[in-house]
Amino acid sequence: MKRRLFLPLIGVALLGGWLAQAQPTPRPNLFITASASTPQSRTPYTISVEVTVENRGQADSTAGNLELVLKPSGSSANKPKSDVPTMWDPFSQAEPLPALKPGEKKVVNFGTPYAANSAFRNRTGSFKANNIDPTGGDTTVTMTVTVR
Questions:
Q1: Which terminal residue of the chain, N or C, has fewer Cβ atoms less than 10 Å from its own Cβ?
Q2: CA–CA separation, 28 vs 94, rounded Å?
Q3: pLDDT confidence tier of residue 105, bands split at 50, 70 and 90
């Protein structure tokens, strides 16, 4: 009889310990998306980036800075040697990001120095710009967004 009570008692103790650990403290969880578009309908098509930050967590986030880094890719043979910044160098911008409550979204728009041959909307990850290479060829620019 004692053995029958011992095993269920151990099982309940283990289950109780697991449930206590499975209940973490509420935390913010920021979900960030960035998309590049050409907002106007006439040439040259200037490119802007829209960044959406959503708090998908269970607690308020802290205020910080939203940093967008745009980095043109290409071979080192295409990049000019220069002591001053050129269009081939990474371009960085930062905007303040207020604290977000759970479920709250914030949209931040960034202007860029890049232009495109044709209009496009909502490109994620990277886009092609035509005003980086002096020949006017398309150069891929990758987008990275972080909250600091």
A1: N
A2: 21
A3: very high
CATH ID of 30-147, from 3.30.43, 2.60.98, 2.60.40, 1.20.272: 2.60.40
> 32-63: per-residue pLDDT in tens?
999 999 987 777 799 999 999 999 999 999 99
Alpha carbon separation from 71 to 10, 27, 118 (Å, rounded):
57, 32, 20
Token output for 37: 């578009």
* Pairing relationship of beta strands 105-116 and 45-55 according to DSSP bridges: antiparallel
Model pTM score: 0.77
